[in-house]
Design goal:
With about 240 residues, the protein is of the alpha/beta class. The chain has 2 domains: about 150 residues, Rossmann fold, CATH 3.40.50; about 70 residues, Putative phosphatase, domain 2 (DNA polymerase, domain 1), CATH 1.10.150.240. It is about 50% helix and about 15% strand. The strands form 2 sheets. A 6-stranded parallel beta sheet has the order 5-4-1-6-7-8, with helices on both faces. A two-stranded antiparallel sheet has the order 2-3. Helix 1 packs across helix 4 and helix 7 crosses helix 8. The longest helix is centred in the last third of the chain and has 25 residues.
Length: about 240
């Protein structure tokens, strides 16, 4: 069985409006100048601590924690629902489930928010589980999160794919031997995903099933061929 881990923001849902508004809220409350909305949208995807470290030009944990707290104040009441499911996602998830794949959400977003979003937008029944970070930042690194999912669900990396729109999705997958698929409808560019080492790129949700079938069918064929070659090698002395 194939296992597929999905990023949330920029992969399943388009959260530009809510995230940009929450970033602006935090920066303005701290008395900082806000970049243009188009510039803020570039930060969708990475963990909040990383985002605010860059936006504030600071490594001071108190400054960063203050910004994260302000962000989450607006996000928890309003921002998480300023969101929409990308066209074609429901159909793609239905097809994948129908083909026997086990689906999981694996997002750097805190799990308590991710769970509410997936439920609110009617996606929860597609997924076996929703994984995210803790509020203290544990598992916010995508590589750590993927390791956590693999261990918790006893998944084989060689039978697992990671679908995401940013470099950290790809890098995290490759760190554990998981098949990395970069999607082009989110916030990461073609160049970003290629540079991160994406093995496959997907232009639209409807193509995901074909990409997964092609990759894992090829793997099974290679394994079968290797097995046949091993059986054909005579034992020494015979």
């Amino acid at each position: 069985m194939v296992n597929v881990l999905f990023d949330l923001d920029g992969t399943l849902t388009d959260r530009r409006e809510g995230i940009v508004a929450c970033l602006k809220h935090a920066l303005l409350r701290l008395g900082r100048t806000c970049p243009a909305d188009s510039e803020l949208a570039r930060f969708i995807g990475p963990p909040l601590q990383e985002i605010f470290g860059t936006l504030l030009g600071s490594t001071d944990s108190k400054d960063i924690d203050s910004a994260v707290t302000l962000y989450r104040q607006r996000f928890s009441s309003t921002g998480m629902f300023e969101n929409s499911v990308y066209p074609g996602i429901h159909s793609a998830l239905t097809t994948l489930r129908g083909s026997g794949a086990a689906l999981f959400v694996a997002t750097s977003k805190p799990q308590i928010f991710a769970q509410r979003i997936v439920e609110h937008f009617g996606l929860i029944n597609y997924f076996s589980a929703v994984y995210g970070s803790e509020l203290d930042g544990t598992h916010s690194n995508k590589s750590d999160l993927i390791a956590h999912v693999l261990k918790s669900e006893s998944l084989s990396p060689h039978a697992t794919a990671m679908v995401g729109d940013r470099a950290h999705d790809i890098v995290g997958a490759k760190a554990h031997g998981v098949f990395p698929i970069g999607v082009l409808w989110g916030y990461g560019s073609y160049d970003e995903l290629i540079a991160a080492g994406a093995t496959a790129l997907c232009a639209q949700p409807a193509l995901l099933n074909d990409i997964l079938l092609s990759n894992f069918d090829s793997k099974r064929q290679c394994q079968a061929n290797a097995s046949e070659r091993n059986m054909a090698i005579p034992s020494e002395g015979k």
